[in-house]
Write the structure tokens for this entry.
Amino acid sequence: MAQYATIPFRGGERVTPSGYRLINRMIGPLRPQARLDSAALIDGLLAPSAAIPPKYFYDALGCALFDAICELPEYYLTRTERGIYAAHRETIAAVVGQDRQFIDLGAGNCAKGESWIAALQPRRFIAVDIAAAAIEPALARLAHSHPEVEFTGVVTDFSRTLDIGAELDHGAATFFYPGSSIGNFAPDDALGLLSQIRDLCFRRGGLLIGVDVPKDGARLAAAYDDALGVTAAFNRNVLNHVNALLGSDFDPAAFAHVAFYNVAASRVEMHLEASRAQRVAIAGRERVFAAGERIHTENSYKYAPPEFAALLRRAGFADIAVWQDEAGDFAVYYAE
Ligand code: AVI
């Protein structure tokens, strides 16, 4: 039973005997889900406390802005995680094991996943992301440089469900979920996703995951409100994406970027604040925003290592190893 369609690889060149495949789960029989998603997006915008799920950040421009965020001096997450991998690569590789299928969740430009190919020598590399625009060129590039690996791209929204079981074989699997992306889920949803990953590990498998740690609120606020305004542009751009999806008429320039650390909830929150009173047409309805009214666009939860290890255990993982940088700013876990 085909639940999805294999689509031609736009702009790609088949360079390996095995080639690479891009599977798009948002097309064909799954279109009704896209309609449900639009309905949920509209409901969120019309609700008294307006919200947009963070998955809508990632149109082509949003992906490029996120790549730029990862280079910012204030955004310590990416380089700290990279430093942990560089410092412990051999030890981590020995614990994880080679010759597995490697599932890069939220792969984006696949740069982080690619950095593990030499050490882990995966048989198969499955890049999973909501943004086809990010993984298409990445897979074309990877297939050139690693002809020994079989590459597959799956374009899917795993904030709903991780429907990639059909792409896995029964060999050992390493799931890779870097960048503290798990922090963009509410804790109960994070538990749900971790449990699904655990179920997909079959008999032999594990999860290598990077997670940000709570720290000084001013430092966290700066990481999500940088001096150059790149994160502000990333946040506002979600309104461009919503306009493209819904035909709404948000003016991104009429909303200010707001980011702060909510200590009690252990999360950074991002909002868009209406700079003046305004009316926005959304799917045949009108939403009036008062000056100062906010649209909640993202939570980024931070976990101390004992808390995150407990979450992994609740999801059914055991044998949890943790690596951190010297300052304890970020943590990497491998759980089987
Ligand atoms: C993708 N995710 C882990 C980022 C984060 O840190 O929560 C998204 C982001 N939002 C603002 N800056 C980066």
